[in-house]
């Protein structure tokens, strides 16, 4: 066994990751325009499924370990892996939409939390802190740095705002595999973790709770919720490390 099972991809593989990342980012932008009071999460799923197919991609979540839909929709106290269905969005909800696509055998994985209509100041702050936490984590990524740097940076930032970081779910290596090594921990673990090397592809996707970090899985076997029913928000990007840079492959062109 090699010391580390984290894949080092070929320099040209970043081109494939850019294609997958671009489609995932485009789906997220597209579905964001449909997020509004009155639409169901199932309708959002159908819209995304059609969009992905029209662009020649495949949803990586559909049938993944039996997951029944093409996207994940996680509303309010749902942390992640919410299953789209009959739930109708109402003003004040926050909804994370998580898109993972497969394009020519490579994966792009990205999510963001949207606010529906008017929400509370707390919800607004939580969503804002979750987005910033993701960027704080990405900013801690350096070629030849360590994975532990990511969680340390996010923990410092989130503690300062009085929110908590989910521990039971992590970022992950990605590429030809949807979920690969390493586990990208988003909290302070007091371990340096593996070294970050050029050719590594992985996600940074902190889940931030207004209350306790503790989570549980509902009876459907998928939906992850906060145990104290507090709100949860999440943002996710897929990133690629090169010799001298860290590229966010799921960043939309206009935002780069
Ligand atoms: N996209 C999620 C992630 O960021 C995983 C969803 S798996 C599913 O890793 F089966 F729930 F869709
Ligand atoms: Co992911
Ligand atoms: Co995801």
Notes on the structure:
The strands form 5 sheets. Strands 1, 2, 4 and 5 form a 4-stranded antiparallel beta sheet that branches. A 3-stranded antiparallel beta sheet has the order 3-12-11, with no helix packed on it. It contains 4 helices and 15 strands. With 256 residues, it is of the alpha+beta class. Strand 7 (171-173) and strand 8 form a beta hairpin. The chain has helices at residues 13-32, 41-54, 121-139, 148-161; strands at residues 58-59, 72-75, 78-80, 94-103, 106-115, 164-165, 171-173, 180-184, 201-204, 207-209, 215-217, 224-226, 232-234, 237-241, 246-248. Residues 98, 100, 109, 111, 236 line the site of one cobalt (II) ion. The site of one cobalt (II) ion (CO) has 5 residues, from loops.
Number of E-state strands: 15
Q: Which small molecules are bound?
A: 2-amino-4-trifluoromethylsulfanyl-butyric acid, cobalt (II) ion
Task: Give the end-to-end Cα distance, rounded to a whole number of Å.
Answer: 39 Å
- Which blocks of ≥5 consecutive residues have pLDDT under 50? none
Instruction: Determine the number of helices (DSSP H or I, runs of at least 4 residues).
Output: 4
What structural category do the secondary elements indicate? Answer: alpha+beta
Give the helix proportion (percent range).
25-40%
Largest sheet: 4 strands, antiparallel
- Give the mean pLDDT: 97
Shape: globular
Q: In what range is the share of β-strand residues? A: 15-25%
Rg over CA atoms, rounded to whole Å, is 17 Å
What is the element string, with H for helices and E for strands? Answer: HHEEEEEHHEEEEEEEEEE
